[in-house]
Design goal:
CATH class of chain A: Alpha Beta
Number of domains of chain A: 1
Distance between the termini of chain A: 49 Å
Low-confidence stretches of chain A: none
Number of helices of chain A: 6
Order of helices and strands of chain A: EHEHEHEHEHH
CATH topology of chain A: Rossmann fold
CATH architecture of chain A: 3-Layer(aba) Sandwich
Structural class of chain A: alpha/beta
Oligomer: homodimer
Helix content of chain A: 25-40%
Chain lengths: 218, 218
C-alpha cells in the first residue's frame, strides 16, 4: 500500500513544488486547500486546477475567520506596495498553526504518514510561522497532542531553499507554474507590485528562467 | 481598559467554569464556540445560552471537518457505553490544537492577553491534548509562530482539579450548571450511560451536590 501524505496547497509556487516533491517521493498525495476568506479567490482556483492537473482529489476547507487583522483578509487594509523591515500587514495571525492543525487532524484520521508544507525562510523571513524552530515546536505539539502523531512526519522540503532554487527544482519535476498564482491581489493578471509578485519575479530572474505567467514586475 | 480574554466554550461544566473564572479575574471575555460537526448540537445551544446568561457576545465558528475518525462526529461509530483503558473513540484528532490555534488567531487579532481553556487531566486522562506537557508545547508554538504571541497567556485554571473540585469552584462563582450540557448524545435528557454522563454524575456526587439537570446515571 502506498504511503499517504496530506499536502498543504495554496496554489502558489512553493506549495505546488512541495506537492510535486511529495509525489516524487512516492506518496499518495491528498492536497488540502483552505478558503479562509482571502480577499481574492484566484489562488484557490489555481490550487484546485493544479490538483486536477496532478490527478489528485483535493479537500477544500472553508473557514470563515470572523476576526480580521491582516491585509490579506481585510479589504480595509491596503496590500503594501513596498517591502519594509519587520512583519508585513499580509501576516495572518496563526495561519500556519491553524492549517497545520487541520492537516494533522486529516493525517491522523486517514492514517497518512506525512504532512508536506512548502514554507521557507528566505523570502518571507518576516513571517514567524515559516521558520525552522517554529516547525520544531509544532512537531512537539503533534507528538504530545494526538494519539498517533508520532507516526506522522511534518516535511518542509523547501525550508532552506531560495525562491530561485525552488523554481529550478519544480521545473525539473514538471510543476505547471503557468497554473500557479502568487499575487496577493486578485484580477486577471498579477499586480506586479506586491511583495509576492516581487519575490516571484526575482525568483524566476535568479533562476534564469522565464515566468510562464506573462506580466511585468514594476 | 479591561484586559481581554478569549474563552473556549463548549457548553459543558469545565469550559463554563473556566469562563466564570476568567470573568472573576477581571477579564472582558470573548467566548469562542465551535461547531465542528458534532453529532448533536445540544452542547452548542448550551454554550450560546451560557454566554447570553453571562452577558457576553459569543463567536461561533463553523468548521466542516470533512474527515471523520471519531464517534463524536461520525454517526457510523457508536458512542462507547463502557469506560475502557486507553484513548476512547470519542477522541477527535487534534481537536484542542485546532481550537487553540483559532483562539490564538482571535486573541492576536483583537489584542487579547489571555486564552482560557477548561481542560483537565483527571477525568479525561485518555485524551492526549488535555495534559500539562501538551499545553507547554503549544505555548512554544504560540511564542514562536506569531507576531505578538508572547503577550498572550494560555490559562488552564482547572488543569489539576477533579470534576468535584471544579463543580465546587463553579458553584461559588454562580456558574449556571442547569444550562450546561455534558452528554455525548443529544436528545432532551442526558443518556446517563456515556463517559461524559458518568464523570458528571460522579463529580456532583463527590462534591456532595445535586445536579440541577434531572437525570439518573445508570
Amino acid at each position: 500500500m502506498l504511503k499517504k501524505a496530506v499536502v498543504l496547497l495554496s496554489g502558489g509556487i512553493d506549495s505546488s513544488t512541495a506537492l510535486y516533491i511529495a509525489k516524487k517521493k512516492g506518496y499518495k498525495c491528498f492536497p488540502l486547500i483552505f478558503d479562509y476568506g482571502q480577499r481574492q479567490n484566484r489562488e484557490i482556483s489555481s490550487a484546485k486546477t493544479i490538483s486536477r492537473r496532478a490527478g489528485l482529489p483535493y479537500t477544500l476547507l472553508k473557514i470563515n475567520l470572523p476576526w480580521k487583522g491582516s491585509s490579506l483578509i481585510d479589504e480595509c487594509i491596503d496590500i503594501p506596495r513596498k517591502r519594509k523591515k519587520g512583519i508585513p500587514s499580509t501576516y495572518v495571525p496563526a495561519r500556519n498553526t491553524i492549517m497545520l492543525s487541520f492537516a494533522l487532524s486529516f493525517a491522523e484520521s486517514t492514517k497518512a504518514s506525512g504532512i508536506f508544507i512548502g514554507a521557507h525562510t528566505e523570502d518571507y523571513s518576516g513571517y514567524p510561522d515559516c521558520k525552522p524552530n517554529y516547525f520544531k515546536a509544532f512537531e512537539k505539539v503533534k507528538n504530545l497532542g494526538t494519539k498517533d502523531g508520532k507516526k506522522i512526519k511534518i516535511v518542509t522540503p523547501l525550508i532552506n531553499k531560495t525562491k530561485a532554487e525552488i523554481i529550478k527544482i519544480g521545473k525539473e519535476l514538471g510543476v505547471p507554474y503557468d497554473l500557479t498564482w502568487s499575487c496577493y491581489k486578485g484580477g486577471k493578471k498579477p499586480c506586479g507590485v506586491c511583495d509576492s509578485c516581487y519575490y516571484r519575479a526575482r525568483g524566476f530572474r535568479d533562476a534564469g528562467l522565464k515566468d510562464p505567467l506573462t506580466y511585468k514586475y514594476q
